[in-house]
Amino acid sequence: MSAQFPVTIAATAASDAPVPPSALRQLLKNKALVIGGVILLVIMVLAVFAPLFAPFDPYVQDLGNRTVPPFWYDQGGWLHPLGTDPLGRDYLSRLIYGGRISLLIGASVAVISGLIGTTMGMLAGYFGGKTDMAVSFLVTTRLSMPVILVALATVALVGGSLWVVIAVLGLLKWDRFAVVMRSATQQVRSLEYVAAAQAAGASTTRIVLTEVLPNVLPHLIVIATLEAASAILLEASLSFLGLGVQPPLPSWGLMISEAKAYMFFSFWLIAIPGTALALLIFAINLAGDGLHQVFMPDERS
Question: How many Å apart are CA 181 and CA 107, to the nearest integer?
């Protein structure tokens, strides 16, 4: 018994009423969503089909071709369009494969933290009372701990790796999900179709999963995009400090870290992965802002 727009006899009889645009048309009309989505789609295609687009193996070293500049330099060439790193590895190949790492971390952290935060927020918003107090206490406790400091300490103790970074960030980034989903659930809980489901004898689990969750899903999608971008930036920060993804994996943050000793001599070693990282974050945030405008137009600033 999900929420439905009321259909009246007058609305049905009004043959000249304008036909509402489809969901797809609404999405395509939003420029922020289209631009961000196209950029994100291109990065995803390159990352998923990296073996088809990467000209070289990103792990193969060639010490005879170290720090070859990109093609726009006089010493560069089209054999290595974006040059090579200090170990002679093709930079374009590492950049393409690095997109896999960033997208995997962003998506995995969003899923893990989303499951934790959404469950806690919906329980607090639907039941209220002591459950709400307990969840609010956990959220307050989590907000009192800076994510980057806790992640640094945890990774330093456990050891840096791809899966450790995903687990640590996933267990630390759930607070925004919990806060937003708690508020959204409180609003939905008081609506008529939820009361109708309760009066019909539907179980609490059924009401939460079939009545409440579908109507708070837009909030969940928007928050997931923001948290994915934040997780990608945090991973890059940890990798830059040597506590995130470990060599020889081609993480963009690790590529920036490996190039910091050459920043005054081969600036492009930092500029290329830095630009790719900024473009990915820009695309995710732009797409998230577009989704917010489409799903929640009344909340636009």
Answer: 19
